[in-house]
Amino acid sequence: MKENSCLQAALLCLGMLCYSHALSTGPLSQSRPSLHGHHEKGKEGQVLHRSKRGWVWNQFFVIEEYTGPDPVLVGRLHSDIDSGDGNIKYILSGEGAGIIFVIDDKSGNIHATKTLDREERAQYTLTAQAVDRNTNRPLEPPSEFIVKVQDINDNPPEFLHENYHANVPERSNVGTSVIQVTASDADDPTYGNSAKLVYSILEGQPYFSVEAQTGIIRTALPNMDREAKEEYHVVIQAKDMGGHMGGLSGTTKVTITLTDVNDNPPKFPQSVYQMSVSEAAIPGEEVGRVKAKDPDIGENGLVAYSIIDGDGMDTFEITTDYETQEGVVKLKKTLDYETKKTYSLKVEAANVHIDPKFISNGPFKDTVTVKIAVEDADEPPVFLKPGYIFEVQENAASGTVVGKVHAKDPDAANSAIRYSIDRHTDLERYFVINAEDGNIKTIKALDREEIAWHNISVFAVEVHKQHQETKVPVSIKVVDVNDNAPKFAAAYEAFVCENARSNQQFITISADDKDDSANGPRFIFSLPPEIIHNPNFTLRDNRDNTASVLVRREGFSRQKQDLYLLPIVISDGGLPPLSSTNTLTIRVCGCDSSGSLLSCNAEAFVLNAGLSTGALIAILACIVILLVIVVLFVTLKRQKKEPLIVFEEEDVRENIITYDDEGGGEEDTEAFDIATLQNPDGINGFIPRKDIKPEYQYMPRPGLRPAPNSVDVDDFINTRIQEADNDPTAPPYDSIQIYGYEGRGSVAGSLSSLESATTDSDLDYDYLQNWGPRFKKLADLYGSKDTFDDDS
Asked: What global pTM score does this model have?
């Protein structure tokens, strides 16, 4: 309690001291003529009046964050006209008036009722006025004054971010700027050192340092290596009061990452790599992998591989797998264990991107020796040639040697080889091969005109290892021999006009030969020696594989001879040459004066005196139509069928079948045999209709006919009805079967027409009209009695 009283007294003294200081430093004042004043004489004896100041103040100060038990006195207002009798009332208005600042309306003392924070509000503008207490009449005009909140060091420095992240290249020089951190202090920077900040590093020495005034972090050690340590955690402190004792501070964390530079060359972990590959491997197959380690990352760690020396440079190649940073050794050519068993390669690994700043750390490459051993493989036989082409003459005798294929075992064992022909390529079996020596022979005569080339495949297998098999293509060309004589190129049929002139050409012919061109043209055309002096026609060889036929005389007549057959001999140019005789058919025709064909029929002269050609065609057409009509009439007569049911007009009859044994009714299932109902006429062989063969056979559907011993009458009748309805070969007819006894327990009673005819029953049978068409006959019979009675 005593300490609080002392603090309050000290603050009050401080406030009064500030107030006195304000008065002595030229305060702002509001002045007006006061009731109190004194007189001064002027130079001319004039009395001058000088007004006194009505308000005397400048500004008030109050310390922030005051936490005493009583309101703090900010200052006191007093008017010159205040005589102390209590008639003057002081009024305070403005920012915070009545809430934060209160005034004693009698004494003019101003107190702060709440704790003030300069960081929230640095000053308040208030207005004071003196009024008459009784009338509230203003005695002085209102005047403004300022209450400033005096700052104390109550806010520590704060950084803009709680955590910072920065990067700096590894091996940077000392003093390289990394990042600048900035802190701010909410205290008044114009008052004292409360907002004067100083930066220092708490964690991160000796690698980094910070500038005390700017907060710039710099490297402090040279040659920091990312591969040794990549990430550093630095703690920076900002302290106010210029860093002196008692100042407040704030800290932030900075994570600094060293970025990579290419300062490390690639290095193979071993000096020699041993690899092996089978001689059966195909080009492009992977043999093995090598890898040089580079601690750098990203593009700085990219490594490219190459073969720079060795006896296998032409047989192997190396590529770079950039995903795994490995060198992939691949086979470039086929291998032969029997020829060469080992290879040696010198492989180099070099960085793709080299930083000139660190060229002194080079060379950025490394070499390694790769030794490759070729493994022996059980290889299939190998033919001496990739393919064979042979020739054989057509029509050669069976057993003629076509050619020979040869294969060997490339392995050291040099096993024996057996040969065979793939019969899928020689379906007609024209050839056979000797399994021991590979000689191919013919077993059939070959015809070049049918197949000019035979493409077969020959297998070679090891005798003791049947799975080792090799196939080679063999093409056999059938060499042509002159075995086909030339013939007409087409089926020629020429015509010559009756009025043709001598030596007139009327057709040009050519020839065709199935043999090769060497045994075909040039063709020679001639007439047989026996008709070389033919009186009607002559032949001229055009020496271009064609010949022209000419008329030797004039005056041809169709009535004398309308057809001539001219034999022509054609010879080819083969060795030896072949020839054939071909017959040219020449018809004599009627032509007009320009040589256009009119008619080639000899009957035309006979018909000129009678009917024209159009009339003859019309007559023939009529005859054909009449014949067609007669044929159709006869056909329809034969196909006309007689009616299935023979009856005279209006001769309506019904087939009434009488049985001596009547049905037993609904309760009697043993008094009769259902078999007697199954078409008794058919059993006796009597068929009451004509047996006409149906146009198509009717096949009753299975499952519709009940068993012969069935006693279900309803199912039997329904089945028979369905069969009759679906039988297209049966004519429609009704079969009425009458039963005189229905059984003793029948609810329906007897329906027998015989029994009802002998009784005097007065039953009404009109309901039969509603039973449908099947009971129409009964309805007409029993309904006729009523009609007869009405008529009588």
From this structure: 0.42
Report the CATH number of the 59-150 domain: 2.60.40.60
Nearest to 421 by CA among 432, 437, 436: 432
Distance in angstroms (rounded) separating the CA atoms of residues 382 and 280 = 13
Q: Cβ distance 439 to 401 under 8 Å?
A: yes
- Its CATH architecture, for the domain 158-259, is Sandwich (2.60)
Give the per-residue pLDDT at 668: 53
User: Quick one: fold of 272-375?
Assistant: Immunoglobulin-like (2.60.40)
* CATH 3.40.50.300 is held by the domain 487-599: no
Q: Do domains 158-259 and 272-375 have the same CATH topology?
A: yes
Whether the CB-CB separation of 379 and 469 falls below 8 Å is answered with: no
The whole-number pLDDT of residue 183 equals 93
- At 156, the amino acid letter reads P
CB 343 within 8 A of CB 372: yes
What is the pLDDT at residue 696?
46
The span from the CA of 22 to the CA of 14, in Å, is 12
Cα–Cα distance for residue pair 324/710, rounded to 1 Å? 91
CA distance 151 to 362: 63
CA atoms of 740 and 723, how far apart (whole Å): 27
Q: Which residues of the chain have pLDDT under 70?
A: 1-58, 602-612, 640-711, 728-763, 783-792
Residue 429: name the closest of 417, 416, 440 by CA.
Answer: 440
Q: List, as own/partner pairs, every contact residues 730-738 make where C-beta atoms lie below 8 angstroms and the sequence separation is at least 24, other chains included.
A: 731/644, 731/645, 731/689, 733/645, 733/655, 733/688, 733/689, 734/654, 734/655, 735/655, 735/657, 736/654, 736/655, 736/656, 736/657, 736/777, 737/657, 737/659, 737/677, 738/656, 738/658
Q: Which amino acid is at 229?
A: K
Tell me the domain boundaries of the chain.
59-150, 158-259, 272-375, 382-479, 487-599
Are the beta carbons of 332 and 352 closer than 8 angstroms? no
Specify whether the CB–CB gap between 160 and 183 falls below 8 A: yes
Concatenate the DSSP letters of all residues of 267-299 into one string. Answer: B-S-SEEEEEEETTPPTT-EEEEE--B----GG
Three-class secondary structure assignment of 626-642: HHHHHHHHHHHHHHCCC
Identify the helix (H) or strand (E) that includes residue 16: helix 2-24
Instruction: Kindly state the helix (H) or strand (E) to which residue 547 belongs, with its residue range.
Output: strand 546-551
Query: The domain 382-479 is classified under which CATH number: 1.20.1440.230, 2.60.40.60, 1.10.490.10, 3.40.50.10320?
Result: 2.60.40.60
C-alpha closest to that of 250 among 271, 264, 270, 236: 236
DSSP annotation string for 693-730: --SS---PPTT-SPPTT---HHHHHHHHHHHHHH-TTS
Count of beta carbons in the 10 Å neighbourhood of residue 6: 10
Using alpha carbons only, give the angle 719, 721, 727 rounded to the nearest 5 degrees: 100
Contacts 24+ apart (CB under 8 A), 714-720: 716/674, 716/677
Pick the closest to residue 339 from 318, 315, 317 (CA basis): 315
Q: Is 480 exposed, middle or buried (0-12, 13-18, 19+ CB in 10 A)?
A: buried
Pairing mode of beta strands 342-351, 388-393:
unpaired
Residue 722 tokens, joined: 């369905």
d(CA 36, CA 53): 10
Unique residue bearing structure tokens 């040639």: 385
Query: On the CB side of 194, how many CA atoms lie within 13 Å of its CA?
Result: 17
